[in-house]
C-alpha cells in the first residue's frame, strides 16, 4: 500500500480538507478516492499505468481524483485549469491518455474529446459508489505522475515520476521542514506543478495536517483566512508575496497591525518557483517577522536544496542539500568544480525522475555518464550556502567572453526607486556575442539615461544593460516565472 494511503488510515476522523463545499476528514478522502478508483477500473483489475488526464479545480474533488488514479494503478496527468485548448490537447495527446476526467465547469473547453472514441471521457459528476471493490497492490517502482516542464526554455516535456520518486520528494521535506499533524496550510498554487502538488498538498496529507483550498488567488481573501488563526504554514511564489505586500500597504494601520500579529504566529513561510527579490524578502520580514525560506527544486527532482528550517536563511541563497539528496557542482565536462567556482548543479537521489515521457534521447542527454541529473542551473557555493547564478541558457548571458548572471543585474535594478519589476536577457550582437538588455516595469516616469548612470555606479560596464525597454508587464507562465524567450521577442 502506498505510504500516503497508509498514513491517511492513521487519522480517519481528523480533518484533512476544507474547500468551498465543506469540511472533509481523512476517512472521507479515502472513501471518495476508493469510489473514483472503482469507477476508473470499470471491469479491469488494474489500470497498469494507463495515463489518466484530469481537469479539476483545487478542491477535495481534485485530491479524490488524484488519489483514485494512484489507487487504481494509473498515472496521474493533471491539466492546468487556465490553459487554452491547444496546450491541453498537447498534454493529452503527448501522454496518449486513456481516460479524461473533467469537472463540469471544464467540460466545454474539452468538449471535442467527448466525441473521441479513442479516449474515455468521464465527468466528475458521474463518479458514484460502486461498493468497496478490491484495489490492486501498487509497487513503488511504478509510474505515478506526468507533469510538464514549465517550457521557459523550449517545448514542454512530460516528466514521469514513480511512486518511489514522489515518496522521496515528500519525505525529505517532511523531515527538513518539520511537518506534523498539528499543521494547517492554505493551498493557493496551481495543481499541475510540483510546488502545489508535492510541497503543499502531499506533505500536509502525508503528515495528517489540514489543507484548506482557495480556488483562486485573492489577496484580501488570503488575509481574511489568515486572520481566522488556523493557518500556520504557507507556501507561495514571489509574485504572490509581492501582491500580498501591495494589498497590505493599502490597509489602515489597525488592519495592518491585526494581520502582522497573525503572521507572526505562523510556523513556516516558504517562497519558490522563481527567484525571490531581496527587497520582497526584507519587506515581508518587516510585516511578518518571518524570513521567507527559499528553496530550490525542479519538476524533474522535486526539491533538492533548501535554506534551513532553524538557522540562518540567507537572502539570495538557496541553502544546502536536503536529506537524502546528493548535490555536486560541475564544469561543462562534468568534472567536479572547486567550491568557489561557478558550475552546473547536478543532482542524484531517489527524488530524481524516471524519464521524459516518450523521449529516450532527451532522457539520456539529461543525465551524466555516471547517473547525475543535469539541472542546467549555474550556482556557486558561497560560505556554506548554494547561490544560484542563473539558468545555463536563459539567465547566463555570454558577452565578450564573460558569463554574466541576469539574476544579479535584476536584483540591483529592483532596488532603483522607479523600477517595480524587471527582466534581464541577452540579445544577439555581432561584436559581443550577446549584449545585456533589460525590460522594465516602472512605478512612475522613468528616464533610462538616469537609470543607466545609476547602474554604472553599481556594476561593471560589461554588466550594465545596453538596451532598456519600458513595458506594462512581463510575460510569465502559470507559475509566475518570467518566460525569457517571450521577453526576447520584445526587443
TrEMBL record:
Domain AMP-binding enzyme C-terminal: 408-481
One family name in Pfam for this protein: AMP-binding_C
Domain AMP-dependent synthetase/ligase intervals: 6-357
Gene Ontology terms for molecular function: medium-chain fatty acid-CoA ligase activity
Highest taxon of the lineage: Bacteria
GO biological process, one term: fatty acid metabolic process
InterPro entries in alphabetical order: AMP-bd_C, AMP-bd_C_sf, AMP-dep_synth/lig_dom, ANL_N_sf
Gene3D superfamilies hit by this protein: 3.30.300.30, N-terminal domain of ligase-like
Family: Belongs to the ATP-dependent AMP-binding enzyme family.
Full protein name: Malonyl-CoA/methylmalonyl-CoA synthetase
Amino acid at each position: 500500500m502506498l505510504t500516503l494511503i497508509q498514513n491517511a488510515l492513521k487519522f480517519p476522523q481528523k480533518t484533512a480538507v476544507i474547500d468551498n463545499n465543506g469540511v472533509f476528514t481523512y476517512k472521507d478522502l479515502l472513501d471518495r478516492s476508493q469510489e473514483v478508483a472503482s469507477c476508473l477500473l470499470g471491469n479491469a483489475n488494474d489500470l497498469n499505468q494507463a495515463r489518466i488526464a484530469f481537469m479539476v479545480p483545487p478542491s477535495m474533488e481534485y485530491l479524490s481524483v488524484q488519489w483514485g488514479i494512484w489507487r487504481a494503478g494509473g498515472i496521474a496527468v493533471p491539466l492546468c485549469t487556465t490553459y487554452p485548448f491547444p496546450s491541453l490537447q498537447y498534454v493529452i495527446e503527448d501522454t496518449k491518455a486513456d481516460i479524461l476526467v473533467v469537472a463540469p465547469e471544464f467540460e466545454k473547453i474539452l468538449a471535442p474529446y467527448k466525441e473521441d472514441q479513442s479516449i474515455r471521457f468521464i465527468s466528475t459528476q458521474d463518479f458514484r459508489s460502486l461498493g468497496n471493490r478490491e484495489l490492486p497492490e501498487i509497487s513503488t517502482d511504478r509510474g505515478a505522475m506526468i507533469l510538464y516542464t514549465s517550457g521557459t526554455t523550449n517545448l514542454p516535456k512530460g516528466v514521469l515520476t514513480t511512486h518511489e520518486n514522489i515518496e522521496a520528494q515528500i519525505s525529505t521535506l517532511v523531515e527538513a521542514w518539520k511537518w506534523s499533524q498539528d499543521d494547517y496550510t492554505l493551498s493557493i498554487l496551481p495543481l499541475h506543478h510540483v510546488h502545489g502538488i508535492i510541497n503543499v498538498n502531499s506533505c500536509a496529507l502525508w503528515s495528517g495536517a489540514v489543507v484548506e483550498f482557495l480556488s483562486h488567488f485573492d489577496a484580501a481573501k488570503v488575509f481574511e483566512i489568515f486572520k481566522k488563526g488556523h493557518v500556520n504554514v504557507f507556501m507561495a511564489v514571489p509574485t504572490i508575496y509581492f501582491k500580498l505586500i501591495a494589498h497590505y500597504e493599502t490597509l489602515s494601520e489597525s488592519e495592518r497591525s491585526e494581520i502582522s500579529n497573525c503572521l507572526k504566529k505562523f510556523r513556516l513561510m516558504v517562497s519558490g518557483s522563481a527567484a525571490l527579490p531581496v527587497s520582497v524578502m526584507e519587506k515581508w520580514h518587516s510585516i511578518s517577522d518571518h524570513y521567507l525560506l527559499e528553496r530550490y527544486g525542479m519538476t524533474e527532482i522535486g526539491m533538492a536544496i533548501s535554506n534551513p528550517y532553524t538557522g540562518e536563511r540567507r537572502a539570495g541563497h538557496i541553502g544546502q542539500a536536503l536529506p537524502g539528496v546528493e548535490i555536486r557542482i560541475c564544469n561543462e565536462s562534468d568534472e567536479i568544480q572547486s567550491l568557489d567556482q561557478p558550475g552546473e548543479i547536478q543532482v542524484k537521489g531517489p527524488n530524481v525522475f524516471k524519464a521524459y515521457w516518450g523521449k529516450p534521447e532527451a532522457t539520456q542527454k539529461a543525465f551524466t555518464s555516471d547517473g547525475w541529473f543535469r539541472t542546467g542551473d549555474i550556482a556557486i557555493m558561497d560560505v556554506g550556502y548554494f547561490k544560484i547564478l542563473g539558468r545555463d541558457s536563459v539567465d547566463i548571458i555570454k558577452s565578450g567572453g564573460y558569463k554574466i548572471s541576469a539574476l544579479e543585474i535584476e536584483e540591483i535594478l529592483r532596488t532603483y526607486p522607479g523600477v517595480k519589476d524587471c527582466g534581464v536577457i541577452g540579445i544577439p550582437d555581432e561584436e559581443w556575442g550577446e549584449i545585456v538588455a533589460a525590460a522594465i516595469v516602472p512605478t512612475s516616469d522613468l528616464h533610462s539615461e538616469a537609470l543607466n548612470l545609476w547602474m554604472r555606479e553599481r556594476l561593471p560596464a560589461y554588466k550594465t544593460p545596453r538596451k532598456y525597454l519600458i513595458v506594462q508587464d512581463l510575460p510569465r507562465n502559470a507559475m509566475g516565472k518570467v518566460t525569457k524567450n517571450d521577453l526576447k521577442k520584445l526587443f
